[in-house]
C-alpha cells in the first residue's frame, strides 16, 4: 500500500472540504475505488480517537481528526524515513559513517543500504554537497550553509508543503536541541519584536524562516556555527539580528554568533517583513536601477498583453523590492514556499497567468528563478494591484424606486451607498408611484413598491434599509454578474471549440505528449504552427497548468495562433499531469486579435471545472463532441 497515495488522498479531501464519492476520488488519484477504501482505512488507523476520514452515503470527506493524521504514522523502516535517518547521520558526523554499522542500526540488509546511498547521491544532485566514499566509510562534503540547506530540504519534505509542524521538525532535526514546545512561543515573540521595530509580518512565509532559525539553533548547539561574515553598516540587519539572537537564547538556550545573526536577519528582511514608515526612516533600502527598469518593462508588457491595469508607480516599487529580495534568496538557494499557491491557481487563474508572464520576462532579463511558489508571491502582488480596478468593473448600476418624502428618499439612498457602495452605483432615484419599468435601464432596480409582473432585475426593499434587504441585493448582484460572465463564456466557447479538435479517450502519455497530440489537431487545421506547440511545452515547464484537480489548460505565453481555438481531451478516468492527475485537458491557442477572449475563456473555463459535480456530469455525458458541448453549455446555464 502506498503511503504517498494515502497522503495525497488526505490532502485532496482537506482541500475539497465536502463529500466525494470513491469513484471521483479514484479518478483524481488514478487508482481504483477499492484502493480508495483501503487508503481510508489506513488513514483512520493513524489516529487513536475519531476518524481522519468520515464515511457516509455521499462518500468520504475529511474528518475532525484529519489534521492529526497529516505527517503521522511514519515508521522507521519506510524508505523515506530511512533515507532521512541516513542523511541525518551523515550530516551530524563530519567524519562519516560505516556502511555495515549503519545497516545494523537501521535494521536493513547491506544491499538495501547501498540502494539508499544511491538515492542519497540522487538527492544531492545539483547541490553544493557531495557524497564521498572510501571503502566502507561514507561522508558528506560541503560547507555549513550547504548542509543547512540540505536539512531544510529534509524538513520541508517531512511537512509535504504544508504548514510548519513541530512533529515534522522533530523528525528532521534534533529534538533535544530545539524542543518542539518552544517553537510556537518563539514565533509569537518574534512577530511581536518585528512589529515593535516597525515591520509588517508576512505570516504566509514565516514558517520557512522559523525552519531556518531552528536549524541554525540546532547546528550552533552542536558546535557548528556559521563563520563571521563581513557585516555592512546596516541598522536594519543589526536590529533584527539582535532580536533573533535574544529570543533564540531565551527560548532555545542557544547563543548565536555574528555569522548566524547576520544570516538569519537577512532571511527575515528578504522574506517575511515589509518595512513601515518608521522602519524605512531608520534604514531605507534603495532600489537597484537595473531591477527597477526590468520590472517596469515587464509590467508594461503584461498590461498590453492581457489588457489589465498594472502600470502604477507604487505597484512597480513594491514589486521591484520583492524581486530584489527574490534575487538575494536565489543567490543563497533559499526558497520560500507559499501555502496559497494551489488556491491562487484555481481561484485566480488569470492573475496567476499574468504573474507567470512577468516572472518569465524577469527570468530572461535578470535570471530570476522560475519557482512556482515564488511566482505565486508575484501573483499576490499582481492581485493586489488589480483588486481596485476589478472592483470598479464589477460595480453594477442601480435605480432606486421610492415614492414619498424627499427626506426618506435621501435617507434610503445614503443607506444604500453606505451598505452596498462597493457593489452598486445608484445613478437614478425614481419618485413616481407608477414608474415606467421598461424605461429603467440600469442593472438593478431597488424598489420600495411592488412590481406587477416578474423582472429579475427588481429587488424589493424596505424604505428603511434592513440587513435582509442588503443580503437580497448582494445575492441579486452576484447572480447578475455570474450570469453575464457565463453568457460571454458560452458565446466564446461555441466559437472556439471544434469537433475536429476533440479527443476521447485521452491517453495517459504524459504532459508533453498530450500537448503534442492535442496541438497536432490544431496544426492540422492550420491554426497554429510547431512553434506554438513548443512554446506551450516551455510554458508548462515553468509552472503546471493544472489549475484545478480536474482541468489542465496548457497554452503558450505568446498569442500567435491564426485565430483562437481550443482542443479538448477527456480522459477515461484521469491522466497524470504535473504532481497530480486531471480528467480534462483543454489546449488553448490564443490569437493576438482575441486578447479579450483570453480572460473570458481562460478564467471562466477554470471556474466551471472547479465544481466537482459539474465535472462529473460533463465526464459522464460526453460520449462525443456534440454531447460535450451540450453538457458544458447546460452546466454554464446552471
UniProtKB/TrEMBL annotation:
Which InterPro entries is this protein grouped with?
BglG_antiterminators, HTH_11, PRD, PRD_sf, PTrfase/Anion_transptr, PTS_EIIA_type-2_dom, WH-like_DNA-bd_sf
Q: Domain named PTS EIIA type-2: which ranges?
A: 495-638
Q: Where is the PRD domain?
A: 286-392
Q: Which domain of life is it from?
A: Bacteria
List the keywords (alphabetical).
Answer: Repeat, Sugar transport, Transport
Task: Tell me the Pfam families matching this sequence.
Answer: HTH_11, PRD, PTS_EIIA_2
- What is the protein's name according to its record? PTS sugar transporter subunit IIA
| Native source organism of the sequence | Microbacterium bandirmense
Amino acid at each position: 500500500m502506498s503511503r504517498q497515495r494515502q497522503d495525497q488522498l488526505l490532502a485532496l479531501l482537506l482541500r475539497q472540504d465536502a463529500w466525494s464519492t470513491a469513484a471521483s476520488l479514484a479518478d483524481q488519484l488514478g487508482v481504483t475505488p477499492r484502493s480508495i477504501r483501503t487508503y481510508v482505512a489506513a488513514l483512520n488507523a493513524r489516529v487513536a480517537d475519531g476518524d481522519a476520514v468520515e464515511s457516509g452515503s455521499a462518500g468520504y470527506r475529511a474528518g475532525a481528526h484529519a489534521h492529526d493524521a497529516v505527517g503521522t504514522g511514519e515508521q522507521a523502516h519506510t524508505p523515506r524515513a530511512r533515507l532521512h535517518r541516513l542523511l541525518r547521520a551523515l550530516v551530524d558526523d563530519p567524519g562519516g559513517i560505516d556502511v555495515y554499522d549503519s545497516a545494523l542500526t537501521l535494521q536493513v540488509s547491506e544491499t538495501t543500504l547501498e540502494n539508499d546511498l544511491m538515492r542519497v547521491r540522487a538527492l544531492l544532485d545539483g547541490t553544493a554537497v557531495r557524497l564521498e566514499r572510501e571503502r566502507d566509510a561514507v561522508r558528506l562534503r560541503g560547507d555549513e550553509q550547504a548542509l543547512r540547506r540540505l536539512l531544510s530540504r529534509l524538513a520541508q519534505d517531512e511537512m509535504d508543503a504544508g504548514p510548519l509542524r513541530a512533529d515534522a521538525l522533530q523528525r528532521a532535526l534534533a529534538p533535544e536541541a530545539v524542543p518542539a514546545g518552544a517553537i510556537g512561543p518563539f514565533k509569537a515573540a518574534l512577530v511581536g519584536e518585528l512589529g515593535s521595530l516597525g515591520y509588517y509580518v508576512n505570516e504566509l512565509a514565516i514558517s520557512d524562516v522559523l525552519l531556518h532559525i531552528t536549524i541554525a539553533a540546532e547546528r550552533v548547539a552542536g558546535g557548528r556555527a556559521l563563520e563571521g561574515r563581513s557585516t555592512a553598516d546596516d541598522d536594519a540587519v543589526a536590529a533584527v539580528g539582535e532580536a533573533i539572537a535574544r529570543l533564540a537564547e531565551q527560548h532555545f538556550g542557544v547563543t548565536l554568533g555574528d555569522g548566524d545573526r547576520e544570516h538569519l536577519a537577512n532571511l527575515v528582511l528578504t522574506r517575511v517583513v515589509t518595512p513601515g514608515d518608521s522602519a524605512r526612516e531608520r534604514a531605507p533600502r534603495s532600489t537597484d536601477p537595473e531591477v527597477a527598469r526590468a520590472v517596469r518593462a515587464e509590467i508594461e508588457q503584461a498590461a498590453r498583453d492581457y489588457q489589465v491595469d498594472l502600470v502604477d508607480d507604487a505597484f512597480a516599487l513594491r514589486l521591484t523590492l520583492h524581486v530584489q529580495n527574490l534575487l538575494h534568496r536565489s543567490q543563497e538557494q533559499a526558497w520560500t514556499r507559499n501555502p496559497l499557491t494551489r488556491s491562487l491557481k484555481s481561484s485566480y487563474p488569470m492573475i496567476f497567468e499574468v504573474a507567470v508572464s512577468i516572472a518569465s520576462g524577469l527570468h530572461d532579463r535578470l535570471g530570476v528563478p522560475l519557482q512556482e511558489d515564488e511566482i505565486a508571491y508575484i501573483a499576490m502582488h499582481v492581485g493586489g494591484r488589480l483588486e481596485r480596478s476589478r472592483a470598479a468593473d464589477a460595480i453594477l448600476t442601480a435605480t432606486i424606486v421610492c415614492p414619498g418624502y424627499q427626506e426618506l428618499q435621501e435617507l434610503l439612498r445614503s443607506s444604500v451607498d453606505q451598505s452596498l457602495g462597493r457593489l452598486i452605483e445608484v445613478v437614478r432615484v425614481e419618485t413616481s408611484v407608477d414608474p415606467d419599468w421598461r424605461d429603467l435601464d440600469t442593472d438593478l432596480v431597488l424598489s420600495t413598491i411592488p412590481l406587477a409582473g416578474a423582472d429579475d432585475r427588481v429587488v424589493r426593499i424596505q424604505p428603511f434599509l434592513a440587513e435582509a434587504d442588503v443580503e437580497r441585493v448582494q445575492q441579486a448582484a452576484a447572480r447578475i454578474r455570474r450570469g453575464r460572465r457565463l453568457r460571454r463564456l458560452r458565446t466564446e466557447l461555441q466559437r472556439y471549440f471544434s469537433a475536429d479538435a476533440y479527443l476521447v479517450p485521452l491517453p495517459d502519455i504524459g504532459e508533453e505528449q498530450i500537448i503534442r497530440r492535442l496541438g497536432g489537431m490544431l496544426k492540422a487545421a492550420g491554426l497554429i504552427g510547431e512553434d506554438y506547440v513548443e512554446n506551450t511545452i516551455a510554458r508548462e515547464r515553468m509552472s503546471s497548468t493544472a489549475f484545478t484537480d480536474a482541468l489542465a489548460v496548457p497554452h503558450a505565453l505568446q498569442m500567435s495562433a491564426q485565430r483562437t481555438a481550443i482542443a479538448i481531451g477527456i480522459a477515461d478516468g484521469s491522466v497524470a499531469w504535473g504532481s497530480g492527475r486531471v480528467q480534462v485537458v483543454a489546449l488553448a491557442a490564443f490569437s493576438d486579435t482575441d486578447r479579450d477572449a483570453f480572460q473570458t475563456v481562460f478564467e471562466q473555463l477554470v471556474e466551471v471545472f472547479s465544481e466537482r459535480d459539474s465535472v462529473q456530469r460533463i465526464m459522464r455525458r460526453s460520449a462525443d463532441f456534440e454531447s460535450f458541448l451540450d453538457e458544458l453549455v447546460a452546466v454554464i446555464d446552471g
